Amino acid sequence: MNYLTTSLWFILASALQAITIWLALRAGLTTFNPSFNYTGLFGFLVIGQIAGYLLISFFGGRAQISGITYGAIYGFFLWVVIALLLAPALNLFTSPLQIGLNAIIVTLLSFLIYGAVAGYASEHTVKHLRD
Questions:
Q1: Mind listing the UniProt keywords for this protein, alphabetically (predicted)?
Q2: pTM of the shown model
Q3: Residue 34: is it exposed, middle or buried by C-beta count within 10 angstroms (0-12/13-18/19+)?
Q4: In the chain, N or C terminus with fewer CB closer than 10 Å?
């Protein structure tokens, strides 16, 4: 898998993450709203690329488990760092912990989905780089 294909996978992972939150918001399952506008979505995709390529660097030679599992663990780590620590500290959005259980579940699920898809792509990229 080349870098263009890998980047497209990371865009897909970010899009699935955003769609998960958007659908939950539209269905009334949560009031968590990271304000979806063009600038926010662009930033979302850029951060998804950076996080994805960091995952490749972490994954290379270290993981003894599947890429999807490794990615889901990474997604949990990203949820803690971004959704619980960084974004609230930078006033990007309110912490899901302050909004309620539904926001916690929706945001955690969205980060796990991102991590699983990015982990799958990372596993294949690392295999390709080794060959």
A1: Membrane, Transmembrane, Transmembrane helix
A2: 0.89
A3: buried
A4: C
Please count the structural domains in the chain: 1
- CA pair distance 105, 58, nearest whole angstrom: 26
Task: Determine the Cα–Cα distance for residues 117 and 52; give it in Å rounded to an integer.
Answer: 10
Domain of residue 13: give its range: 3-130
**Helices and strands per DSSP (H, E), number in the chain:** 6, 0
Q: Which tokens hold the place of 91? A: 């006033």
Please say whether the beta carbons of 122 and 56 come within 8 A.
Answer: yes
- DSSP assignment of 2-71 equals -HHHHHHHHHHHHHHHHHHHHHHHHTTS--------HHHHHHHHHHHHHHHHHHHHHHTTT--S-HHHHH
Distance (Å, whole) CA 128 – CA 117: 17
Residue 40 has which token pair? 């926010």
